Amino acid sequence: MNPKALTALLATLAIAGCTLAPDYQQPASPVPAIAGDGGADDPLVLPGWEALFQDPQLQQLIRTALSNNRDLRLALLDVAEARAQYRIEGSALYPELSVDGDGTRQRLPADLTQTGDSEIQTQYSVGLGVAAYEVDLFGRLRSLKQSALQQYLATEEARRSAHITLVSEVANAWLTLQADRRNLRISRETVEAQQESLDLVEGRIDLGLGSELELRQAQVALETARANQARFTRLVAQDRNALAVLVGAPLPPLPDSPAEDLDSELAALPEIPAGVPSAVLRQRPDIQQAEYNLKAANANIGAARAAFFPRITLTGSAGTASSELSGLFDSGSESWSFSPSISLPIFSGGRNRANLDLAEVRRDQNVARYEQTIQTAFQEVSDALQARGSFTEQEQAQSALVTATRRSLTLAQARYEQGADDYLAVLDARRELLSAEQELVSVRLQKLANRITLYRALGGGVFPDRAIQVGKLD
Hints:
- It is a single chain.
- The chain has 474 residues and is an alpha+beta fold.
- 60% of the residues lie in helices and 11% in strands.
- A four-stranded antiparallel sheet has the order 1-2-3-4, with helices on one face.
- It is elongated.
């Protein structure tokens, strides 16, 4: 058998295999059916993160984090590992050809020769060989390759999920920092106002118009404001540290004054119709990852089933052999060998049956995980959509409350200076204003955090490098 004939035979056997994996059926959606669901033909496409996070400094921090963050780097390495594993599994479908050259020289004693005299035997050979190539008649290798491919695609979606999570965490940490800086500025203004009030009370006491109780109340209010300022100073420092860890690099200098309105940091998301179309949920990388893992488990069933059938392996070579090195390529020196083997499992102590049971159980586990992931996604998107409108109403009400308490403080101060009311009314009005202003910052932070949560829950928007060209993996 010449090398061309051997290669042709192996190629024919390689493409003749079938697979025993069950046909994949996507599980039914475990969430309620949604009226007007446009399905895959009517997807909701969100913009990329650059369009959502418009502050230039925040954009630069996100880019730095995407380059430096260790968790994302590990996710990228997981993808590279899965890609290599897929190529390893795929290589088993092809024969491993090698060119081998051998030379042996041995002395045989007289007892082992036909002539009764000792001999020195010499042999040289050169050949093209195939060693223990498995003919994948029942698709065991193809199933393993398919499983490795689906696992690779799952890790690619895990990387996308890590990417979206990191972008969201950096944005949330940035907004928290800006909110605490805004609270720090409010607390400083409160300290200044309380100091002015203390000076006013002391001046009234000098004129015989005030009491020691008013003086002590003003001092208590001032020290309380200073303690509040110290607390937000600490929080701002901790926020910077948390953001630096996410970014993976020292933070650049921040502007002296935080933005007056946190809304300037983020753009508005496009309008999202009532309900959660299933096509929107399936855009999420965690759902894509769960389905790829399910497909991988389904392929492993095919490999487990193939273990019950005969396994055929081929070993062969074709080349030349001669007793002299100079005669290797002379006419008539051709040599070949062909050693097929077949192995049929008879008894393995139940190992093959147990492996098949294990593969089927793991498939069922992945079905449950897939359904659980969809349910979680449905809840996250629904909760974020429900909260969006209520946060807008709460912010409007809180803003009106700040305006009203600020006016109340102005009136209380005027009445106190005119002697029409005691200082306690001023203290109460100032406490209410401070509380209202800080609550307004908190509500605005929650509103923007909900916007980020919704963006993340909907799959993170446009992801340019999501497309995976499987054909280029081989």
